[in-house]
């Protein structure tokens, strides 16, 4: 009888332990924990010298880029070594690497009174790469959104659904803040999380400029006071002042060397690129961090930051999913994520 009781207690203990462990995992990674509804921005974005979209487009046209057609009929973007001077007399780099990125084909365009977007598809590093070149008249057009307009853990939705909910003409997945319990979260001028993740974060300032900060060296409150409009916490930094910031063997955690990737880059005054690459398939191998940084440097990007990748990597343009999101390489399906970075369209 004593042996039976001990056996029964052991079984009961095992069941309780399994149940607790299962609940802990579900609570951490699955069960939604809404904490705060998204509120209206408490910061009004300010810019210094605001260039018109027309002037910015003209600047790009005169930036020294040229297109050539190869023997297969594909358009290639030949990168020169030019620079342009802005209205305030400062020089901004355009396409500075002497190289040729093959397969740069325009696959979509959009423009309104405040925004100009040119979407191209490239073929590089045995991968399909999608690049949205974005010029806006005001940096406040570069926005973020949270799934279900709610801040919290495990609150998720697809990039395409969030894009539709926010009338986004262009959207990419963000940093998936909800998968972690640390890392600064400032969105559209509102502070949601001030717990340091001890990583390098991207600060998009009210004037649209990029700044990289170490979360361990500054508080989220200080960033907000100093003009942070968006803070994304994933990384690493890919390019800083036009120089590659990652090594050839650097990777995110235990991730594979070649992956689908999402990144955002700063070219100059109110001028950005959104970059998403396919990966993990026979058609598209995916990029290493170093390859992603090298590719963006060839595009003339000054500052670039790596966002959540892998199965999360998604680009939506005018309501259509542009890339081929996949987690396992066997099926194309969007992963639900916590947040997006987007450009809004006109109603």
Description of the structure:
With 347 residues, this protein is an alpha+beta fold. It has one domain. The strands form 7 sheets. The protein has an 8-stranded antiparallel sheet with strand order 7-8-9-21-20-22-18-19. A hairpin with a 4-residue loop joins strand 15 and strand 16. The longest helix is centred in the first third of the chain and has 28 residues. The radius of gyration is 22 Å and the shape is globular. It starts with a helix and ends with a strand. The relative contact order is 0.17.
Gist?
The chain has 347 residues and is of the alpha+beta class. It has one domain (32-344). The protein has five helices and 25 strands.
Strands of the widest sheet, in order across it, are: 7-8-9-21-20-22-18-19
What does the average pLDDT come to? Answer: 81
Task: Describe the main β-sheet briefly.
Answer: 8 strands, antiparallel
Topology order in helix (H) and strand (E) letters: HEHEEEEEEEEEEHEEEEEHEEEEEHEEEE
Number of domains: 1
Query: What Rg, in angstroms, do the CA atoms define?
Result: 22 Å
Approximately what portion of the residues adopt beta-strand conformation? 35-45%
The percent range for helix content is 10-25%
Sequence stretches where pLDDT stays below 50 over 5 or more residues: 39-100
The best one-word shape is: globular
What is the number of helical segments per DSSP (H or I, 4+ residues)?
Answer: 5
Query: How would you name the oligomeric state of the polypeptide chains in this document?
Result: single chain
* Count of DSSP strands: 25
Give the terminus-to-terminus CA distance: 76 Å
Structural class: alpha+beta
